[in-house]
Automatic annotation (TrEMBL):
Coiled coil: none annotated. Pathway: Cell wall biogenesis; cell wall polysaccharide biosynthesis. SUPFAM superfamilies: Nucleotide-diphospho-sugar transferases. This is Glycosyltransferase 2-like domain-containing protein. Gene3D superfamilies: Spore Coat Polysaccharide Biosynthesis Protein SpsA, Chain A. Residues 9-134 form the Glycosyltransferase 2-like domain. InterPro entries: Glyco_trans_2-like, Nucleotide-diphossugar_trans. PANTHER family: GALACTOFURANOSYLTRANSFERASE GLFT2, RHAMNOSYLTRANSFERASE WBBL. One of its GO terms (molecular function) is glycosyltransferase activity. Belongs to the glycosyltransferase 2 family. It comes from the Bacteria. Keywords: Glycosyltransferase, Transferase. CDD domains: GT_2_like_b.
């Protein structure tokens, strides 16, 4: 191995024990070994914690949260654990439904010297039929093809489905925002890195992982089939407006406000197959909330108190 850099892994899980087991097996089979494997149990109710306690491995460190903090809170806790419980050079994070190929981490490490201003490296995320995972397509940088001859694509933001951060970057930019709960915490965090701190983000084209989601479609409030998930779009709309306010232009905020606050509600009223007024109201309410949403961005302290 030409690079002798240490890497920890963080996986956040909630009530998906079978997928978690598959994820753990894939991570333990990596050609580039990890040092510590922090598994954040978001207060699961499906025997996940019992399973984690039964694992006999010095590398695996299970962390049990007292309540479900969503993916955002889980990754916040995971990165705090990495900073406070380890000295590894990098942290590689993912959801429990991420199944990395055996060389996924090795390929990320191979590109860790690509920039002297490296912010993050993310994997090429695929669905079960090897097509591109639509919901995990990174946002390309305006110079997206500048490094194409080196097998990477320059990106502005990416998802938390297999992404690696240098320790010094986490210490510099802080932690994901717990108050997001779900949706948008990954975009906000990676935009914070590239936009606010002017660091470089890259997708490593041959670092392949599978995202084991049921359908390969983007999130869509108008077409969402699960009524239980419809109410969560409030968070998506709110969080989107916030991270655009924080890390983009007034023009982009205005465009998103019109899209989410006017166009999506109208489309829901016309095209949604059920609960049309409810869907429209969720979008309007979330968009309005985003204009006033101002959560705290936690910075890394010298000694964070993590419980």
């Amino acid at each position: 191995m030409k690079n002798k850099k240490s890497v920890d892994c963080v996986v956040v899980t909630f009530n998906r024990l079978d997928l978690l087991k598959e994820c753990v097996e894939a991570i333990e089979s990596q050609t580039y070994p990890i040092e510590h494997f922090f598994i954040i149990d978001n207060c699961s109710t499906d025997n996940t914690w019992e399973y984690l306690q039964s694992i006999k491995s010095e590398k695996i460190v299970p962390i049990h949260l007292e309540k479900n903090l969503g993916g955002a809170g889980g990754f916040n806790a995971g990165l705090k654990t990495f900073i406070n419980k380890s000295n590894a050079d990098y942290v590689w994070i993912m959801d429990d439904d991420t199944i990395p190929t055996s060389t996924a981490l090795e390929k990320l490490i191979d590109k860790s010297n690509i920039s002297s201003h490296l912010g993050f490296l993310c994997s090429n995320v695929r669905w079960q039929d090897n097509s591109v995972a639509v919901m995990n397509i990174p946002s390309p940088d305006k110079e997206w093809n500048k490094y194409s001859d080196q097998g990477v694509t320059k990106v502005k933001s990416a998802s938390f489905v297999s992404i690696m951060f240098p320790r010094n970057v986490v210490k510099k930019v802080g932690y994901p925002i717990t108050d997001f709960f779900i949706w948008g915490d990954d975009v906000e965090y990676t935009l914070r890195i590239t936009h606010d701190y002017h660091l470089d983000g890259f997708m490593v084209n041959d670092s392949l992982v599978e995202h084991k989601i049921k359908q390969n479609i983007a999130t869509d409030l108008v077409k969402e089939e699960s009524l239980g998930r419809v109410k969560r779009y409030y968070l998506a709309q709110r969080n989107t407006i916030f991270y655009l306010k924080k890390h983009s232009t007034k023009k982009e905020v205005f465009k998103a406000t019109i899209r989410q606050g006017v166009k999506v509600p109208i489309k829901a009223l016309i095209k949604s197959k059920d609960h049309r007024f409810y869907r429209a109201w969720v979008s309007v309410k979330g968009t309005a909330a985003g204009l006033f949403f101002n959560p705290k961005i936690e910075k890394v302290e010298k000694r964070d108190n993590f419980k």
